[in-house]
Amino acid sequence: MLQSFKHLFTCNLVLSRSFSGYVSRMRYLMRLKEDDEAYREALKSGKVLLYHKLSPLLRKTSSGVYKLASLKTSDLEQILEKVGKDKHFVNESFLLGCTDKGEPQFSLEVGDLDRSALEKECRGMFVDLRKAFFMIPGPESPLAAKGQALLRWHQTNCFCSATGQPTVRNQSGSFRVCHSSGITYYPKMAPVVIVLVSDGSRCLLARQAMFPAGMYSALSGFCDMGESVEEALHREVAEEVGLEVENLQYSGSQHWPFPQSSFMLACHATVNPDKTQVNIDKAELEDARWFTYEEITEALQNPPRDPRREPPVFWVPPSYAIANQLIQEWANQQQLSRKLHRLK
Ligand SMILES: NC(=O)C1=CN([C@@H]2O[C@H](COP(=O)(O)OP(=O)(O)OC[C@H]3O[C@@H](n4cnc5c(N)ncnc54)[C@H](O)[C@@H]3O)[C@@H](O)[C@H]2O)C=CC1
Ligand SMILES: [Mg+2]
Questions:
Q1: Which of 16, 70, 197, 284 is the most buried (most CB within 10 A)?
Q2: Would the ipTM clear 0.90, i.e. be above it?
């Protein structure tokens, strides 16, 4: 039996060489999730992202730009020994993905170790993820988010909700199992709808009291059990600002690591321009306002560098957030319709 499985894997490997780079990488990751031996081999030659109490390690490059620090496993083993930890702790890492070149990537939580000693040895610093989104290059943000989300999910799913017994991770971290109940737990995301409402010439943005000063975003809300995306969107807008939306248009989706991993489903919608009076649910929102095209373009063109230090009067979420994508799309659409209007 074992022989035939091995044969199958070999066939898969040979086959994968004829696939495109993307398919080969996905098949490789699939194998690492299931095959502990292959996982251990990959870990030896891969790179690990470190998190200290869920804050990722960043490094400043010679050009002054901050990037996610990914450490070679062999270097990390040495660093661990220098800060008084067994090098085999590296085996606690979780599989994140692989680079375009097929180099496997992992994440490891080192929150029990001395933060400043680690920062010194790694020549980097641990930065709160929300702040890191303003510092690292955009393409690195999804990886930083996934690394944190996976670590948090494992930290908060150590026990079976049916038996109260400990759950045990598989080697790659793609699931946890309770051997007492037999239940397998997979990492979860909560579906959230996010919608940019327009009245044709203005768009509606809102802020919660907990947002950083001056930041306004698109309306959002968790889907209720049994709801469709459309139902959740209609309900959330009605609940939060007392408006009825129409013409829903899907824009895109995004994994968002907060508060406990959300799956953002983003749409545009319109309201009747004669019915734009907002009636804010003050329990949910501190404010909701209609913004003009000029206000929006100003906010998009001048994003704050460090909004926690010098918050502008009005600003929108950073470019990595899907709210920013919605706002950008709306501004592009407005620009186009203004051009067409002038041509008429
Ligand atoms: N990536 C992006 O561009 C954006 C992401 N978001 C994310 O969407 C999330 C949801 O948006 P909100 O307007 O705050 O949602 P919301 O309008 O549904 O209000 C949040 C409240 O819903 C309740 N709730 C229901 N189901 C919940 C669940 N599964 N997890 C946590 N709370 C739940 C809680 O009482 C919570 O206080 C935010 O936490 C934020 O992380 C929000 C805006 C932009
Ligand atoms: Mg909301």
A1: 197
A2: yes
